[in-house]
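Re: BIS(adenosine)-5'-pentaphosphate structure - here you go.
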Amino acid sequence: MIIVLLGPPGAGKGTQAKEIEERYAVAHISTGDMFRAATKQEDELGRTVRGYLESGQLVPDDVTSRVVADRIGRPDCQRGFMLDGYPRTIGQAEALDRVLSDRGRRLDAVLYFDVSEETAVERLSGRLTCPACGAGYHKKYMPPTSDGRCDRCGGELTQRADDSPETIRERLRVYARQTEALIAAYEARGILHRIDANRSPSDVTAALVGELDGVADRSRE
Ligand code: AP5
């Protein structure tokens, strides 16, 4: 099964990706996570992507699609994979179609996380992340049991650098300008599944599972 998680910053894509990864045994490919890891390296990719992430702009399509094409070629993607935060432009969507067709594969479904801007801003403003193990929390909706520490590994929780009010606003503007067009494009292909993502995490998971069980069955046919 090959799926895409599409939706604005703060829609809950990363949170639900962890549930889907476990339940359906598909590899989780997050371009945001890959780029954040790259910013810590002093190599060409790290130097290229740093400024884009800091300002909330998209990394250029050619760089992003090359990184994804390499990742999709790894053995853990053989059984299936989930793209979280890619594609984000029509150019990236076309690049994805090309790379899948070259490999004799196809995109099975796009899960669109439909969420209000107000909810997205509130979620991003309160997000906490564990840099050590990658676990995600929210100050109000998913608080850690002990203040400021990760439940899973005890690491110190931090706020993502691009979750400042100004960069959140810019990321939402970029989403509206460059990514929203993908909703109609995938709807026209008949592979868009719209999920009301304004609800609680468990309700959103249940809605996703309701869609994905059928997608997983069809992808095996
Ligand atoms: P990326 O890391 O992909 O960020 P994003 O798309 O902005 O999405 P987020 O990770 O902010 O939100 P999310 O939907 O995953 O929400 P989450 O589950 O964490 O990209 C970062 C940057 O990398 C981009 O700005 C760009 O520069 C670059 N980049 C990445 N991909 C690229 C591409 N394809 N092309 C070019 N550049 C690219 O949830 C948010 C919070 O809400 C958490 O605190 C969580 O606990 C909480 N929460 C989640 N669900 C719920 C719920 N149902 N109810 C209550 N709280 C909830």
